[in-house]
Automatic annotation (TrEMBL):
Domain Amino acid transporter transmembrane: 55-410
Alphabetical list of InterPro entries matching this protein: AA_transpt_TM
Keyword tags: Amino-acid transport, Membrane, Transmembrane, Transmembrane helix, Transport
Compositionally skewed regions (Gly residues) per UniProt: 30-41
Biological source species: Triticum turgidum subsp. durum
Protein name: Amino acid transporter transmembrane domain-containing protein
GO aspect biological process, one term: amino acid transport
Length: 418
């Protein structure tokens, strides 16, 4: 009964807020021109277009966002991890980290509901304000927890964005090597900077759907290409051979299921965030249908040869199917860059005092540009994403995904008992 009461309180004002934001599916005659900019009431056709492609907030949107955000460039490095771990450990660790990550995502959703409930009881209006993980920690456990959450999440998202830019340059090199990778990084940095124009996670409906289609194609292309290629002549499967390689591969798999840094923002974008409870688990189960077959098939076909090829594309012959996979992954990395950067945009907006202002789209984009600049710089300076993946996995994801959410829920429970 208590949990039902909490969910009702959370759902109440939030649905009304989104109705006023101009949602076509849940529109209740609010009439105002939307939460992002105001203006005249949109026509029926524009409402339909906005509902289909732009303004999302359903449980399906959240599932697409979680699934699309979980598996990106790491899909191409998992075969490399299998060559470090071996087949049995690679499969077992994917299942273990995936399920544990789903559990801590559930804990984050519980903490979000508790925080949102307390604030709404105090008549706090979140219209125009996006709740973030560090604010949840601050409201429930205090400023020290807020600082820890802010540090680990922002650092993780910063390097996650850097990885996407580096990966873009690395992938395009397989179909066009007329320019060096740093030059490609400059180009894709400019392209990805356009994400400053996307207001919030509400507006990723079309992108998250397309992103998941793209990674699905790439995963099954890798599987089919490896099976068609067959075992490499003289292939060996000697992993695991060294402890260092074993844990390096494990941290890359840990990074695969480390999308928790944007969990609260995705929840906040939902019309009914109390429905989020099992969404991350469902997203993880789908992602496993992509990562397990592709990584297993590639390791079966190429074995220890993968130890010298961290990107799975490098071992496959160039065909129209491979080129299509490369292009689709490039587009998906643009989407993933937006997922990683959007929470950083929110943090920066709050720091400079413009978050929630009903300013024009170009003024808001200009305010966000200082976030993109250091990411772009780091991607140019560090052009190899493989070591960064492992570093981020070992130092940041472990805290962001597992330690802080679990410890925060434990402390909240202890405080309630006292």
């Amino acid at each position: 009964m208590a949990s039902e009461k909490v969910e009702t309180i959370v759902a109440g004002n939030y649905v009304e807020m989104e109705r006023e934001g101009g949602d076509g599916e849940h529109q209740a005659g609010a009439g105002a021109g939307g939460g992002e900019g105001g203006g005249a009431a949109p026509s029926g056709r524009s409402k339909l277009v906005s509902s289909l492609f732009w303004h999302g907030g359903s449980a399906y949107d959240a599932w697409f966002s979680c699934s699309s955000n979980q598996v990106a460039q790491v899909l191409l490095t998992l075969p490399y991890s299998f060559s470090q771990l071996g087949m049995a450990s690679g499969i077992a660790l994917q299942l273990f980290y995936g399920l544990m990550g789903s559990w801590t995502a559930y804990l984050i959703s519980v903490l979000y509901v508790e925080y949102r409930t307390r604030k709404e009881r105090d008549k706090v209006d979140f219209r125009g304000h996006v709740i973030q993980w560090f604010e949840v920690l601050d409201g429930l456990l205090g400023r020290h927890w807020r600082n820890a959450g802010l540090f680990f999440n922002c650092t993780f998202l910063l390097f996650g964005s850097v990885i996407q830019l580096i990966a873009c340059a690395s992938n395009i090199y397989y179909i066009n090597d007329s320019m060096d990778k740093r030059t490609w990084t400059y180009i894709f940095g400019a392209c990805c900077a356009t994400t400053v124009f996307i207001p919030s996670f509400h507006n990723y409906r079309m992108w998250s759907f397309l992103g998941l289609l793209m990674t699905t194609y790439t995963a099954w292309y890798l599987t089919a290409a490896a099976l068609v290629h067959g075992k490499l002549e003289g292939v060996t499967h000697s992993a695991p051979t060294k402890m260092v390689l074993y844990f390096t591969g494990a941290t890359n798999i840990l990074y695969t299921f480390g999308g928790h840094a944007v969990t609260v923002e995705i929840m906040h974008a939902m019309w009914k965030p109390q429905k989020f409870k099992l969404i991350y688990l469902m997203a993880t189960l789908y992602v496993l249908t992509l990562t397990l077959p592709s990584a297993s098939a590639m390791y079966w076909a190429f074995g220890d040869a993968l130890l010298d090829h961290s990107n799975a594309f490098s071992l496959l012959p160039r065909t129209p199917f491979r080129d299509a996979a490369v292009i689709l992954m490039l587009i998906h990395q643009f989407i993933t860059f937006g997922f990683a950067c959007t929470p950083l945009y929110f943090v920066w907006e709050k720091a400079i005092g413009v978050h929630g202002d009903r300013t024009g789209i170009f003024r808001r984009a200009a305010a966000r540009l200082p976030v993109v600049a250091p990411i772009w710089f780091l991607a140019v300076v560090f052009p190899f994403f493989g070591p960064i993946n492992s570093t981020v996995g070992s130092l940041l994801v472990s805290f962001t995904v597992y330690i802080i959410p679990a410890a925060a829920e434990f402390m909240r429970t202890v405080c309630m008992c006292i």
